[in-house]
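Review form for a predicted model. The reviewer records the input and the model, then writes brief findings.
Reviewer: anonymous (R2)
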Amino acid sequence: MDIPLKDILNWDISNWSQALNFWETEITHITKSEQKLEIALELGGREGGLSLWLSQFCNKVVCSDLENTEKTAKVLHDKYQINNISYQNISALEIPYQDHFDIIIFKSIIGGIAQGDNKDVQQKVFDQILNALKPGGMLLFAENLQSTKVHSFMRRKMNKWGDYWRYVTLAELKEFTSNFNKTTIQSNGMLGAFGRNENQKNKLGKIDKSLIDKITPSSWKYIGYGVAVK
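Model under review:
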């Protein structure tokens, strides 16, 4: 199925799509040709873009958010006539499953869950995910990184959530996933964060991909993504 990246990712597509490419490679390694995985869960689904993407690889997908999940996400899924997605209201801090999912996926949620400097709450999200995955199951994650002091300043100026969002570091992502059997983490993006609209973000993202990512250290990047295997 040919799904536009905008329907999957919503914003800053040029940079965040690199996470999708990485995840798809990892899924392909384990699905073996045309075989699909059994069941997946999206946390913090909003419009359900990642659930739509996962529906290509899994027989069943649970799209979840804190509230009004079906009302918010089903519109997009109906657009593509998807019939293997169900809906539940689930908190990432209280996932009511154990050893259940082949894949759990999220994008840009743990910064807001922390509501300030609550690192322990962010760790709890990863612990809940680990418990809900089957042995050998995979967490696919992408999150906003702390990045540079310039990024921190501009986020406070540009975003209403800039003062309370807890941006994580690459080292913290490694710490949060330390109880998994195997974790691979990558990072990208530098200029894209400064775009004031989607057109600007994508133009800057192309510069990131073609040049800036190659010459700047990982600690300067603002997107961290990866795969953690239980």
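Findings: The radius of gyration is 17 Å.
Further findings: The chain has nine helices and seven strands.
Recommendation: see findings above.
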